[in-house]
Design brief:
The chain is mainly alpha-helical and about 1000 residues long. It has 45 helices and 10 strands. The protein is elongated, with a radius of gyration of 38 Å.
């Protein structure tokens, strides 16, 4: 008798055996049908050893209750006395609710688990065919299939087979099932069967002998007419048979379904014919197939139907598979395939995805398959469709490091075991790790984690996923280092030819030079070489992810040669996670940033500082530049220091732009391209303004000390005044001066002219730093007029002679350096010109339109494609800017928001004032931002300014990568540019020309 308020000893014992609901378990054990077994300690121990004792007991009670009354005791007696059956049956019931349901519906199927002989331990296709032999229709086939599945699951959960053997058995069962389904289809249509030969080629995991419990079974059908039959009619008959086979396996019946048969890996996918002849298959693969299709064929294996025909198919496609790495587009295809397929996974599920998520099964499978394609053309030992077998062969041949292969093998087995047990529970196709605590507990216990199943499972899963993430890229590159470093005598290594093949496959245009760089960086026993061997496998992967891996590796060698002896450089790359990836992105994205870095390699430290890439404001830059100028002994030294600051800040801006455009593994690319454009425009403008301030201070101090005879100001014009400069922009300026009190005007003018000449000389001195060219051609009278004028002279000229184009140019005027008060008074002078009271008259509007039309016809370079010229082309910068400026001159007097030198701000203000529609404003803004980004990208890639897309394939691809287009999508980039600018031009025709 149980004392009230105290738990029974049986309750405690159940709790100790792993039951989470001992009260419910007590009630089940107290049922009359369980009376003979309820107190048996052997049964409780066996239940406690299962993944889910509560589920196992519920399943057992349902099974006992489903037996004929005369057979219930026989089941319980056999269960108590026969340990193999006890372990198998309860193991399955504790791991799979779905198989428990099957046993409740088919209560005699438990007897399939009684036999325990040597032949039963590792059944093959023939054994499963015998197990399915009595099936005569789709329903009985499903029952027989699950009976066979019951035995596979029993061996799996009891540890009789490991995860690879279980996957192979599931593939063999699928083979037997396909054969049974084809036999039923042939039996139902003997006339069709008599006309054709039909073979079923298993693909994917079934073909690779590594199937899941619940998975699509990928197949390809090949048909041929029998001798004397008409080919067209024979293929139609074969198609009917193949379709019937698919329905037999896939359709839902009273016994559910088996699995979908998926034929979408066939030539042309679901758009292609279901059945083709051999010659049709071969013609497609020779002419049209993509790299991923050859990758899929790695696992092709004939499994059902006419196996001789299947072997002919394999014999025909196999040479094509192993020549895939020699195809023209192989490198681009590989770069596309190497990107993880996570874009289509809901954000909430990415971290729970076992297959496609970072560090998932797909990472291992893809890495192995890619290495097979690269090296299998010369090594037949790699020709295996099974992931783990291929991984072993790669390690044995030296294509993969043995330690890396061992770690990946272990991680893959664990992840596949998780996947198996997740699917086994309800026999549903899923690759998501469950979130429910009870599901996680059952999953952990099924994998032998018993102390704290949930915590241990999460720890082990994250550990193995981390291993895969870490090794996924290194797998390609570490053997390359082993091949050149030659540290461990006697260990199998990549041959030089194999190393070159691998580098070619990963996008390196000059693999010989790449190997020499690797040897120079990693050979030897120094600490420096050891750290490089740790860094390079990851860096090489990032380089290969760019449009120019060779440039990235060469740049890295140059930076390492320059900084290798400093104590902080390699430590920064090794210990600061972002620094190494940031450096790889910067070095391999084009010429400008590496050129700037190599002139002062110590700037690499900016890449490791979380705030190092943030732009500095005008005040801070000017303060640093003027301080450097003040410390210098000569004007030349002063401006050299200022230009050095400019070089460093240009690198900071370019690096931030590239990293923001490419994104990193930890942070995505900037989603708003307009923000990137504004950041670059503001940063370069502030930097050039500070540099000009420094040059002005140096020029004045060299001849006049602290005070010039004239007040002097530099007015920014064009993109300089608009804060829209690019990396290679000249500085458009006007120079204005005013004699100081008591100074002779002619003397002041001579001094101002000398200052301008000296500033230009100093800023254009040939040094390793990029020059800053000053362009004053927008001044009154252009090149014919004086370079410097007094404020009074400007006032007189603008009052009497100013043309409408000069008023338009003054829309961008903004003081940038020199006397602040003089600069302000110049702006007060020109405001009435650029924002005329009551707006522009009709004649002025016509004149502006006429000037624009003449510029379009005369200034576009000969031979330039007007649809791709970013400045003067259709819908380009000029179109958008002239349209916005026309609104500023017509409405700026009444709308304060339009009184800005910045195009995007003025466009937004035009919209806010209701002068243009939301759609038109968005179209113009998108075109202007895109054209500006193209110009920035061209400068970053080529190292020199340009208004059109590069003609070279690699440079064009690099601009595409900067703009967010992956490998192979250059055509999409050009099409998008033309589409966006065409829409902008249509808006310009209406808003500017009044069409």
């Amino acid at each position: 008798m149980t004392v009230p308020g105290r738990r029974s000893s049986n309750f405690t014992r159940l709790l100790r055996h792993g039951f989470t609901d001992p009260s419910a378990a007590e009630r089940l054990l107290d049922l009359p049908d369980m009376s003979s077994a309820r107190t048996d300690p052997v049964l409780l121990d066996a239940l406690g050893a299962t993944a889910d004792p509560d589920l196992a007991l519920r399943g057992l009670v349902r099974l006992v209750e489903a037996q004929d009354p005369a057979e219930r005791q026989s089941l319980l007696d056999t269960l108590i006395t026969a340990k193999p059956l006890r372990d198998r049956l309860l193991g399955v019931l504790g791991a799979s609710e779905a198989l428990g349901d099957h046993l409740a519906r088919h209560p005699r199927d438990w007897q399939a688990l009684v036999t325990y002989e040597a032949t039963d331990l590792h059944p093959g296709v023939a054994d499963f065919e015998r197990g399915l032999a009595d099936a005569i229709d789709p329903v009985s086939l499903r029952i027989a299939y699950r009976r066979c599945l019951l035995s596979i699951a029993a061996r799996d959960v009891c540890g009789t087979t490991d995860v690879a053997q279980t996957a192979a058995e599931l593939a063999d069962l699928a083979t037997a099932t396909l054969r049974a389904a084809l036999a039923m289809a042939r039996s139902a249509a003997p006339a069709d069967a008599a006309q054709c030969r039909l073979t079923v080629i298993a693909m994917g995991k079934c073909g690779g002998h590594e199937l899941n419990y619940v998975s699509d079974v990928d197949v390809i059908f090949v048909g041929e007419p029998v001798e004397g039959a008409d080919e067209s009619k024979a293929i139609q008959a074969a198609t009917r048979l193949a379709s019937h086979l698919m329905r037999i396996c896939s359709e839902t019946t009273v016994e559910g379904t088996i699995w979908p048969v998926d034929a979408n890996l066939r030539p042309e996918g679901r758009n292609g014919p279901l059945v083709r002849t051999l010659s049709s298959h071969f013609a497609y693969y020779q002419r049209w197939a993509k790299t991923w299709e050859f990758q899929a064929l790695l696992k092709a294996r004939p499994v059902a139907g006419d196996l001789a025909l299947g072997e002919d198919y394999i014999e025909g496609v196999s040479p094509l598979v192993w020549q895939a790495a020699e195809r023209e587009n192989f490198v681009g295809d590989v770069q596309k395939m190497r990107r993880r397929v996570v874009d289509n996974i809901p954000v909430a599920e990415v971290e729970r995805e076992l297959k496609l998520g970072p560090g998932g099964l797909r990472d291992v499978e893809f890495a192995v398959q890619l290495l097979q394609l690269v090296h299998g053309r010369g090594d037949a030992t790699l020709h295996s469709g099974t992931t783990l077998e291929a991984l072993r062969a790669l390690a044995h041949g030296g294509y993969v490091g043995r330690a890396d292969a061992a770690q990946l093998d272990q991680a893959y087995r664990f992840l596949r075991a998780m996947e198996h047990r997740i699917q086994l529970y309800r026999l549903r196709r899923t690759h998501l790790v469950p979130e429910d605590e009870a599901d996680l507990r059952r999953l952990g216990r099924s994998l032998g984690l018993r102390t704290d199943p949930v915590a241990e499972l999460n720890k082990e899963w994250k550990r193995h996923a981390s291993v895969v993430r870490r090794l996924h890229e290194k797998l390609f590159y570490r053997p390359l280092l082993d091949a050149v470093a030659q540290l461990t005598p006697g260990e199998t290594r990549l041959s030089p030819e194999a190393a070159r093949q691998r580098l070619e496959a990963l996008g390196y245009a000059d693999p010989g030079a790449a190997l020499r760089h690797l040897e120079a960086l990693s050979s030897g026993v120094t600490r420096k070489a050891a750290i490089q061997r740790t860094l390079l496998p990851v860096l090489l992967g990032w380089f290969a992810d760019s449009a120019d891996p060779d440039a990235g590796l060469l740049g890295f060698r140059k930076v390492s040669d320059a900084l290798g002896k400093t104590p902080w450089y390699l430590r920064l790359l090794r210990d600061e996670g972002a620094a190494a990836e940031n450096l790889a992105r910067v070095l391999s994205a084009g010429r400008l940033a590496p050129d700037l870095l190599l002139r002062a390699p110590e700037a690499v430290a900016l890449l490791g500082d979380p705030e190092g890439l943030a732009p500095r404001g005008r005040e801070a830059l000017e303060q640093e530049v003027l301080a450097a100028v003040g410390r210098a002994d000569t004007a030349e030294a002063a401006v050299a220091a200022a230009r050095g600051v400019r070089r460093r800040e240009l690198f900071r801006t370019a690096a931030a732009d590239l990293i923001g455009s490419y994104g990193t593994e930890d942070s995505p690319a900037e989603a708003d391209p307009g923000a990137l454009v504004d950041r670059v425009g503001n940063a370069v403008t502030d930097l050039n303004a500070a540099t000009i301030s420094g040059a002005l201070r140096a020029a004045v101090r060299a001849q006049w000390g602290d005070t010039l005879p004239a007040r002097f100001a530099v007015i920014g014009m064009g993109r300089f005044g608009g804060h829209e400069q690019s990396y290679g922009s000249d500085a458009d300026v006007l120079f204005v001066h005013e004699p100081r009190e008591g100074e002779d005007e002619q003397e002041a003018t001579r001094a101002a002219n000398k200052v301008v000449a000296e500033m230009r000389r100093l800023l254009e001195l040939p040094t390793t730093d990029p020059p800053l060219l000053i362009d004053a051609d927008l001044r009154p009278e252009g090149k014919s007029g004086p370079v410097v004028r007094t404020l009074a002279s400007y006032e007189a000229y603008y009052r009497r002679w100013s043309l409408v184009w000069e008023s338009q140019a003054l829309l961008r005027a903004e003081p940038m350096a020199g006397d602040v008060d003089l600069g302000r008074r110049f702006i007060d002078l020109v405001d009435p010109l650029r924002y005329p009271a009551e707006g522009l008259g009709d004649d002025a509007v016509l004149e502006i339109r006429r000037l624009k039309a003449r510029m379009e016809s005369e200034r576009l370079p000969r031979g330039a494609d007007p649809t791709l010229h970013t400045k003067l082309g259709r819908g380009g910068l000029s179109d958008v800017e002239w349209t916005v400026q026309l609104f500023q001159m017509r409405h700026g007097w009444a709308e304060p928001g339009l009184r800005t030198t910045r195009t995007r701000e003025a466009l937004a203000a035009t919209h806010a004032a209701g002068l243009i529609s939301t759609e038109d404003a968005q179209i113009l803004d998108e075109a202007w931002v895109l054209a500006t980004r193209v110009r920035n990208g061209v400068m970053l890639v080529r190292g020199r300014a340009g208004d059109t897309f590069p003609s070279g394939g690699r440079e064009l691809a690099a601009v595409g990568r900067y703009l967010g287009y992956g490998p192979g999508h250059v055509g999409d980039m050009l099409d998008d540019y033309r589409r966006i600018t065409r829409r902008a031009r249509a808006v310009v025709e209406v808003l500017f020309y009044g069409a």
